[in-house]
Request: fold
Amino acid sequence: MGLGGAEFRLPVLAGILHYPVRQAVPINLAVSLVTIAAFLAIRGSTLSFASVVPFLPAIFALIAGAIVTAFVGATLSAKLSNEQLEQIVLVLLVAIGLALIVEGFLPQRLPALLPAALFWWIGAGILFGLAIGLVSSLLGVAGGEIIIPTLIFAFGADIKTAGTASLLVSLPTVLVGLLKYSSQGAFADRTSISRTIAPMGIGSVIGAIAGGLLVGLIPAAILKIMLGVILNISAFKVFHTTRLQVKHDR
Reply:
């Protein structure tokens, strides 16, 4: 799971709060940045970066790929129609939901899929980074939903190291996407900052902490499967059913 369950915020923004998806995505991205900053402030003194050092080539490669497509994704979003953007958002949310379900059935520890060679790590890191940045900018998420499993299964990082590295990859990725959206006028209406971004940022941090406690009470595999199912139901209810209703009204 990513920080604060950013993939779950989008259906809330578009469904419950009735933001157009074009506005919901940059708002979600802004909340993701608030959540990352809060986590760095809260856990900054306890984070250990020593375990991250061996994975720095992969991390820098992930960042390089992610910031490129974070910029491209925000640019692409402005050129898509509302219907096209909603369809892409639905597909990505369902894909993340299915990935959570599949991950719940996988063993907690698997051998790294990539050989421990600089060439493979940099090449694969850039490719994975391109996917991470695109998902981040089109959904407004920090990308932890992809970054953490990538570091664990592709590069062989343990869960704690992957969580720390995810923050390092997410921060520049979110910043680039947010700056691009801002330059396109996404935050011209400042009321969204006080009414939505600030309170949702606080709620996301609390939710992430609560989620961490739930992992101790409920097996992580079961929790991932449950969340994957909920995400798919929420995505279809908000983005698929709404589109069908709009077509029917026309």
